[in-house]
């Protein structure tokens, strides 16, 4: 009789423990528990495996043997230690060029929240008004808006470029870049996007690539003092060829000079996307992505390569405006996620 009562109490305690764990873990775990046949009808066995399922639809929980010592604590301890991405994943944002070019800063933040976008690159000359002319008080106000919203200021998009044969033009762009770096630091922004914009006629290609690289070296050395990346957009006629971008990086030879992958058709030239991607895979600081309905660009392969390379920065939608921007952005996010399956 005593043995039967002990067994009954054990069964009741096991059942209560499981119910408590399921309540704590939420609906995803409860649904999974209903389908876990291995424990059905076996609550009386001390070797019975506990939870089988996923916490918040993410990583699967391991099956936990219930023993006298872990009877109540094991499910909750397992839930607490369940792995998450720890920030080690790609994130989605958009460039204000062009879908958000007419939005002020509060509208940009509101749209990000409404559509599930986590960050934004603010391109110069747009309605947000975040420019190098901002006063210290205005910079502090911008930074506060982002910090309080939880939306990330992922980058500042400039038109600074260094390919011009005129040294005075190059010098002006270098000095302007430095001002953008100081602005980024004040705003808590990790990177400044710059660009080449083509190969000047009548100038040897290698000379132009070296000139751009050396200008970037100076910018990178300055940016390093502030902990800000210089992100070279893969952009411009001839300069958008990834092998040329690789040469520019080699001439720069500076740890704070990175690449903004631009998802150009020229990425597919030569030996193809993977070969070109691998030339700069270890230096990608951000990614610009066009409309994902463009069928001739292998978006799924690009996202796979980014994951494989360990990229954990922002993929930034650089798309045209729409009369219904929230709807467009929600569809964009859904497709971006689906292409990673």
The topology string of helices and strands comes to: HHEEHEHEHEHEHEHEHEHEH
Gyration radius, in Å: 26 Å
CATH topology of the largest domain: TIM Barrel
Instruction: Output the CATH class name of the largest domain.
Output: Alpha Beta
Q: Estimate nothing, just give the exact number of structural domains.
A: 2
> How widely separated are the two ends?
56 Å
Percent helix range: 40-55%
The largest sheet is:
8 strands, parallel, barrel
Corresponding CATH architecture of the largest domain: Alpha-Beta Barrel
Give the strand tally: 10
| Structural class by SSE content | alpha/beta
The CATH homologous superfamily name of the largest domain equals: Divalent-metal-dependent TIM barrel enzymes
Can you give the mean pLDDT? Answer: 82
Alpha plus pi helix count: 11
Poorly predicted residue ranges: 1-85
Q: How large is the share of residues in beta strands?
A: 5-15%
């Amino acid at each position: 009789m005593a043995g039967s009562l002990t067994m009954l109490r054990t069964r009741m305690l096991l059942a209560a423990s499981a119910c408590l764990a399921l309540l704590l873990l939420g609906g995803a775990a409860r649904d999974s528990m209903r389908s876990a046949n291995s424990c059905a009808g076996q609550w009386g066995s001390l070797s019975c495996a506990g939870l089988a399922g996923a916490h918040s639809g993410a990583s699967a929980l391991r099956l936990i043997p219930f023993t006298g010592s872990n009877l109540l604590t094991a499910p909750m301890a397992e839930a607490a230690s369940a792995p998450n991405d720890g920030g080690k994943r790609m994130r989605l944002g958009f460039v204000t060029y062009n879908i958000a070019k007419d939005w002020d800063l509060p509208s940009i933040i509101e749209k990000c929240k409404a559509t599930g976008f986590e960050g934004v690159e603010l391109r110069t000359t747009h309605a947000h008004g975040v420019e190098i002319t901002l006063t210290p008080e205005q910079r502090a106000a911008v930074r506060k808006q982002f910090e309080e919203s939880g939306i990330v200021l992922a980058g500042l998009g400039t038109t600074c470029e260094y390919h011009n044969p005129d040294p005075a033009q190059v010098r002006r762009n270098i000095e302007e870049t430095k001002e953008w770096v100081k602005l980024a630091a004040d705003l808590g922004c990790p990177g400044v996007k710059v660009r080449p914009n083509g190969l000047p006629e009548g100038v040897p290609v290698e000379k132009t690539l070296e000139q751009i690289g050396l200008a970037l070296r100076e910018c990178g050395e300055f940016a390093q003092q502030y902990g800000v990346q210089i992100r070279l957009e893969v952009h411009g006629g001839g300069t958008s060829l990834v092998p040329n971008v690789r040469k520019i990086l080699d001439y720069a030879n500076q740890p704070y000079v990175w690449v903004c992958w631009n998802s150009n058709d020229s990425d597919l030239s030569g030996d193809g996307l993977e070969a070109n991607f691998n030339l700069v895979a270890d230096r990608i600081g951000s990614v610009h992505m066009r409309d994902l309905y463009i069928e001739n660009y292998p978006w799924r392969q690009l996202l796979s390569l980014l994951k494989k390379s360990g990229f954990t920065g922002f993929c930034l939608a650089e798309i045209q405006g729409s009369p219904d921007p929230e709807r467009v952005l929600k569809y964009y996010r859904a497709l971006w996620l689906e292409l990673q399956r």
